[in-house]
Write a structure and sequence with these properties.
Elements (H helix, E strand, L loop, with lengths): L1 H11 L12 H4 L37 E10 L9 E5 L15 E5 L5 E7 L4 E2 L4 E2 L2 E7 L6 E6 L19 E3 L1 E6 L2 E3 L6
Parallel strand pairs: 1-10, 1-11
Antiparallel strand pairs: 1-4, 2-3, 2-7, 5-6, 7-8, 9-10
Bound molecules: fe (ii) ion.
């Protein structure tokens, strides 16, 4: 699992990330209190690309509804986890993944308060008449010395949520202000001592 951290850190070495922290302090106040329960795991799915760029804006000029995903990485003692890798990937509004490049893909490191912020697009749904995924984002999160968390995030009020066998209501984001800002705090197991 630590191999993932080494790989992703090497991929992002030397790149700068814009840090518009001041614009989202207020929104974070709406984030639900930490329950201390580790965030539920979900499958990676078939479309993960390793060694994503280190950046906060993932849109690359694609059309669609801009979605800001922001929150914190905490441990089960509800303390912030600085320098955690948060690696996000999603499909575009038509349900297509960029499997040759890095559109709608990227990672960043949490700040001293465990915070992260991405600008991406609201994902579409994909599949066929017998199996269709509700809109979701994929995420990998790993703090220094913590297990790697692979999971997915979902959006409230999506009609397909209850028809998607992967849907987990514990992984619903909270909308802030309007449906362009999604809040979610990830909780990682406390590192075992010793
Ligand atoms: Fe997916």
């Amino acid at each position: 699992m630590l191999k993932y951290r080494r790989t992703i850190l090497q991929a992002g070495a030397g790149l700068l990330v814009a840090a518009p922290w001041l614009t989202w302090r207020q929104a974070l106040a709406l984030t639900p209190a930490c329950s201390g329960e580790p965030t539920a795991r979900q499958i990676e799915g078939p479309y993960y690309t390793p060694q994503t760029p280190r950046r906060s804006t993932l849109i690359d000029g694609l059309p669609g509804d801009v979605l800001v995903l922001q929150g914190r990485v905490l441990n089960t003692a509800c303390q912030p986890v600085p320098n955690a890798i948060v690696d996000v990937w999603g499909c575009d509004s038509e349900g297509e993944y960029d499997n040759t490049g890095f559109k709608l893909r990227g990672h960043q490191l949490t700040d001293a308060q465990g915070r992260f912020r991405f600008e991406t697009l609201m994902p579409g749904s994909y599949g066929n008449s017998t199996f269709r995924r509700t809109p979701h984002l994929h995420v990998k999160v790993q703090g220094p010395g913590t297990p790697l968390l692979t999971t997915q995030l979902y959006f409230p009020d999506q009609v397909l949520n209850l028809r998607d066998s992967f849907f987990n209501p514990d992984l619903l984001v909270k909308w802030a202000h309007d449906k362009s800002q999604a809040l979610f705090d990830f909780v990682l197991p406390v590192q075992a001592k010793g």
